[in-house]
Write a structure and sequence with these properties.
3-stranded antiparallel beta sheet, mainly alpha
Length: 458
């Protein structure tokens, strides 16, 4: 629930509504304090009550929702009484007056009064019992507003609304929907900019690292939805429907350009976001880490032998990876004797003595991979983008009889290894385009990675 965001965005507007300032008065700063104890207790009781009524109404679909459940929950949570909760419910059920101004005839401003709409809860009529109530329509809207997620992961749903607006012929809604979507794109782009400038924001970095693929998928879905809406608007049927709609909208200054310009602005914003997101992905991938290291399963086995997992994890692993039948023999502890002996030998106290104390360390496998293929890869990039599948087909898989597939993928994860100027190499994703047979008989399937220069590279 996003109650704090909802309240924070409206608190000062309510203060302005209640202000007793006269026109032409002196300038002063409003008080930062608010009336009341400022503990947040009664606000929490109120929001929990609204959420409870909303959820129970969805579950039971009854006319009225009994309060005993929330009263029991809140009295235990906050050490309040039943009377306290009824007080809060009465508070939310009591309407208050709000006055706004709206444009009237001849450009004159008219007062508009809201009162009944401000009550968030309704009690049963013709009775003084306070054991059941329900949300009013305004209360339901308040809960829905508190649930309005501003996360980019949900932007694809908003983009699909643009496509549906064209389906329904609601052309007047397209600019407004486009403006809201562009606002989300810019907000997400601003978060990326903050990360690129302030890489110490660990929480935000972890979120992007965790949802990187999801964010990229949403960018692709938003772009696809807008492109589909644009293509649909340019069909003969849609143009005829638009002409009929325009005839019924007397005085409307709408033109086809208004709609197509909305599509263009969204796609331009998505393009800028995509470029910035690629920079962030490159930054995350180039952080200090082992790209694909050697996993010592023998050491893992020894560690598990001396420090077993908890019973819950062991049970989960046996369920997922264990034998399908009790007829399958379980391994003997003697099977680990070879590993234990190996470990003992590795920890031997025997000291190795070299005649030449200045023996240089052999280059790592990734260094040997770059030495063997770097110039060839850069040469291919000068011709055009190089996908992972094409790199496999070109045979960039072995270095001195060693399997170099992890190092090849590592280059796509950290393209700056190819170009130490860290200039303009970027990686994009082609969903579900990778399906290739490896020389050892294994198969690579999934999203294909594409390495390319940015457009600005000369």
């Amino acid at each position: 629930m996003e109650w704090p965001l909802l309240l924070a965005s409206t608190a000062r507007l309510i203060d302005l509504h209640d202000s007793d300032r006269t026109v032409g008065g002196s300038i002063y700063s409003p008080d930062e304090r608010r009336r009341g104890a400022g503990t947040g207790l009664w606000l929490d009781v109120g929001t929990r009550l609204l959420q409870y009524l909303y959820e129970r109404d969805l579950e039971s679909n009854e006319a009225w929702v009994p309060l005993e459940g929330i009263i029991s929950e809140l009295t235990q949570l906050h050490d309040v009484t039943r009377e306290d909760i009824i007080f809060v419910a009465n508070y939310l059920a009591t309407p208050t007056r709000l006055i706004t101004l709206k444009d009237g005839e001849n450009d004159a401003l008219q007062r508009q009064t809201y009162k009944r709409e401000t009550a968030l809860i309704e009690w049963p009529r013709n009775t003084n019992r306070r054991d059941r109530c329900r949300l009013s329509s305004s209360g339901t809207k308040a809960v829905l507003l508190s649930q309005a997620a501003q996360n980019w992961l949900y932007a694809a749903d908003d983009a699909s609304k643009v496509e549906r607006a064209i389906d329904y012929g609601a052309y007047a809604d397209v600019p407004q929907l486009a403006e809201g979507l562009i606002s989300q794109i810019r907000r997400f782009s601003k978060e990326i900019t903050l990360l690129l400038e302030r890489q110490h924001m660990e929480d935000l970095l972890r979120d992007f690292a965790k949802h990187r693929d999801d964010y990229m998928r949403v960018i692709t879905e938003v772009q696809s939805s807008v492109e589909a809406a644009s293509e649909q608007f340019n069909t003969k049927q849609a143009k005829e429907q638009y002409s009929r709609w325009l005839e019924t909208e007397a005085g409307n200054s709408f033109t086809p350009y208004t709609v197509t310009q909305s599509f263009t602005e969204i796609l331009q914003a998505i393009e800028r976001l995509s470029r910035k997101f690629q920079k962030l992905v490159s930054m995350l991938a180039s952080s200090k880490r082992e790209v694909i290291g050697l996993v010592r399963f023998d050491l893992a086995a020894v560690g598990l032998a001396f420090y077993p997992c908890s019973e819950s994890i062991t049970e989960l692993c046996i369920t997922g990876l264990g034998p399908w039948s009790t007829d399958i023999a379980a391994p003997s502890h003697l099977d680990f004797s070879g590993i234990l002996s190996l470990q003992e030998e590795e920890n031997s106290s025997t000291t190795l003595v070299f005649d030449d104390e200045a023996v240089d360390e052999l280059p790592s496998l990734i260094e040997r991979f770059l030495s063997a293929y770097r110039e060839e890869i850069l040469s291919q990039l000068s011709v055009g983008p190089v996908s992972l599948s094409s790199a496999v087909e070109k045979g960039w898989l072995t270095v001195e009889d060693f399997d170099a597939l992890p190092q090849l993928i590592g280059v796509y994860a950290s393209p700056e290894w190819l170009d130490d100027t860290n200039s303009e190499l970027a990686v994009s994703v082609s969903p579900n385009a990778l399906n290739i047979q490896l020389p050892d008989g294994n198969r690579l399937e999934g999203d294909d990675l594409i390495l390319h220069w940015l457009k600005s590279h000369s």
